[in-house]
């Protein structure tokens, strides 16, 4: 059975649930949503698990996210333990290479992973990203320069982009 350690992260836009396993961070929830979202995600990704509130275990993660939200950190170095398909993992790895404060397009990510025709699939993989900000899907915008879908909503996406630009 996998123990999933839970804590909340408080920042300017509210609170988010953070979930980690012994191997690293596995999930960062949508701001200001019920714990039900976390439970549904865990049911989909772990066969046997239990939740344990543990702010001590998540302290390094909270510290880095707080520094990020205070504009004191531009690159995370936290252990992560993400689960996804080979394609999703390739997309998420490409996202992690995007420099702080920059943006790119879905087509550019598809090119970067060597699959230029997979623009829609890239969008789906980005939508399945379990760890917002560390896997910076907010840095991906439409080819016309407009904001496009984001699990936490376009207001949060704009907040993160503005945070990194100021």
Describe the structure.
The chain is of the alpha/beta class and 166 residues long. It folds into 2 domains: 68 residues, Double Stranded RNA Binding Domain; 80 residues, Orthogonal Bundle (Arc Repressor Mutant, subunit A), CATH 1.10.10. 36% of the residues lie in helices and 19% in strands. A 4-stranded mixed beta sheet has the order 3-2-1-4, with helices on both faces. The protein has a two-stranded parallel ribbon with strand order 5-6. Helix 3 packs across helix 5 and helix 4 packs across helix 5. The chain is globular. The mean pLDDT is 93. Keywords: DNA damage, DNA repair, Methyltransferase, Transferase. Pfam families: DNA_binding_1, Methyltransf_1N. Belongs to the MGMT family. One of its GO terms (molecular function) is methylated-DNA-[protein]-cysteine S-methyltransferase activity.
Count of structural domains: 2
Biggest β-sheet description: 4 strands, mixed
**Spatial ordering of strands, largest sheet:** 3-2-1-4
Q: Provide a count of the helices.
A: 6
Q: Please state the CA-atom Rg, rounded to the nearest Å.
A: 15 Å
Q: Count the strands?
A: 6
Calculate the mean pLDDT score and round it: 93
CATH superfamily of the largest domain: Winged helix-like DNA-binding domain superfamily/Winged helix DNA-binding domain
Provide the succession of SSEs.
Answer: EEEHEHHEHHEH
Please state roughly what percent of the residues sit in beta strands, choosing from under 5%, 5-15%, 15-25%, 25-35%, 35-45% or over 45%.
Answer: 15-25%
CATH topology of the largest domain: Arc Repressor Mutant, subunit A
Label the structural class: alpha/beta
Distance between the termini: 43 Å
Kindly state the percentage of residues in helix. 25-40%
In the CATH scheme, the class of the largest domain would be Mainly Alpha
The shape, in one word, is globular
Report low-confidence residues grouped into runs of 5 or more: none
Would you identify the CATH architecture of the largest domain? Orthogonal Bundle
């Amino acid at each position: 059975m996998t123990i999933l350690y839970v804590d909340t992260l408080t920042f300017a836009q509210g609170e988010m649930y953070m979930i980690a396993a012994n191997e690293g961070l596995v999930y960062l929830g949508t701001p200001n949503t019920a714990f039900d979202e976390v439970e549904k995600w865990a049911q989909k990704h772990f066969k046997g698990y239990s939740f344990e509130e543990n702010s001590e275990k998540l302290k390094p993660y909270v510290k880095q996210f707080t520094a990020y939200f205070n504009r004191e950190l531009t690159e995370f170095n936290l252990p992560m333990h993400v689960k996804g398909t080979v394609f999703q993992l390739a997309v998420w790895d490409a996202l992690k290479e995007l420099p702080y404060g920059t943006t790119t397009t879905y087509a550019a990510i598809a090119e970067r992973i060597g699959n230029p025709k997979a623009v829609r699939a890239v969008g789906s993989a980005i939508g399945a990203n379990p760890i917002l900000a560390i896997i910076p899907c907010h840095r991906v915008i439409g080819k016309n320069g407009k904001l496009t879908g984001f699990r936490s909503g376009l207001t949060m996406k704009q907040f993160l982009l503005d945070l990194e630009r100021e």
